[in-house]
Amino acid sequence: MAIRVVLVDDHEIVRDGMKAVLEREGFEIVGEASDGHTAVRTVGALRPDVAVIDVAMPLLNGIDASREIGVLCPATRVILLTMHTDAPYVLEAFRAGVRGYVLKTQAANDLCRAIREAADGRMYLSPGISSTVVSQCLSPQPAAEDPLTRRERQVLQLVAEGKTTKQIAIVLGISSKTAESHRVRLMSKLNIHDIAGLVRYAIQRGLVQP
After folding, report:
1. Is the pTM of this model over 0.70?
2. How would you list the strands of the sheet with 77-82, edge to edge?
3. What is the CATH number of domain 150-204?
4. Do 32 and 122 meet the contact criterion of CB atoms below 8 Å apart?
5. Counting runs of H as helices and runs of E as strands, what totals does the chain give?
6. For residues 38 and 32, what is the distance between their CA atoms, to the nearest angstrom?
7. Residue 186: is its pLDDT beyond 60?
């Protein structure tokens, strides 16, 4: 039986390219999504074997989407596509339950293997970042913890995407007052008190693309 896959990327042309490659290799593409929230709903509805998700997704980044998928559909293995090779990104991804971490620069060569490994219950790292993870594990300095809660991180991403407090509240299904409280708390935690600074931080964390 073919491995069932959901593809998540905000660029249709990228999804089309991945779909063509994967179908040629015998995978069954059962669904697609163009933002993090839709990805969670799509995976929850279709229950694929594997979800391939870009890290930098609108509305909800790939790592937080992976966390939600892990709760909603634990049998689905998540593979992240990314440009980031820094250890904190990699470690945070695996803490979120991701089973594969594939560099976009190597995706054509690595993705099929990563999907098969993940579907079989194993983990996969692109060769270009394996040394990064080993170095972090051997380092006497632990990786810095994210100071933000999951909800604060979601609000930060939406602020960086240019959403107003009202729009953030609608996207997250919370009140405007609650959305504003999250925004105030995250600014206090980060000691960043202007939108430009929040945008720069979100870019550094890989939550949005520059």
Report:
1. yes
2. 28-33, 4-8, 50-54, 77-82, 100-103, 124-125
3. 1.10.10.10
4. no
5. 10, 6
6. 9
7. yes
Give me the residues paired with residue 162 across strands: none
Q: Bigger pLDDT: 114 or 88?
A: 114
Contact 186, 148 (CB under 8 A): yes
Mean pLDDT (whole number) for 72-80: 95
Say which amino acid occupies 15.
Answer: R
Q: Can you state the angle between helices 176-190 and 150-160, rounded to 10 degrees?
A: 90
d(CA 29, CA 76): 14
The domains of the chain are located at: 4-138, 150-204
Contact of 162 with 58, CB cutoff 8 Å? no
Residues paired with 7 in a beta bridge: 32, 52
**Beta pairing, strands 50-54 & 77-82:** parallel
**Burial readout 109-125 (b: 16 or more C-beta within 10 A, e: otherwise):** ebbbebbbbbbeeeebb
**C-alpha pair distances (Å), 164 with each of 50, 158, 167, 179:** 34, 8, 5, 10
CATH 3.40.50.2300 is held by the domain 4-138: yes
The mean pLDDT value of the chain amounts to 88
| H-helix or E-strand spanning residue 33 | strand 28-33
Between β-strands 28-33 and 77-82, what pairing exists: parallel, antiparallel or unpaired? Answer: unpaired
For 165, phi then psi, to 5°, come to -60, -40
Q: Please give the single-letter amino acid code of residue 158.
A: L
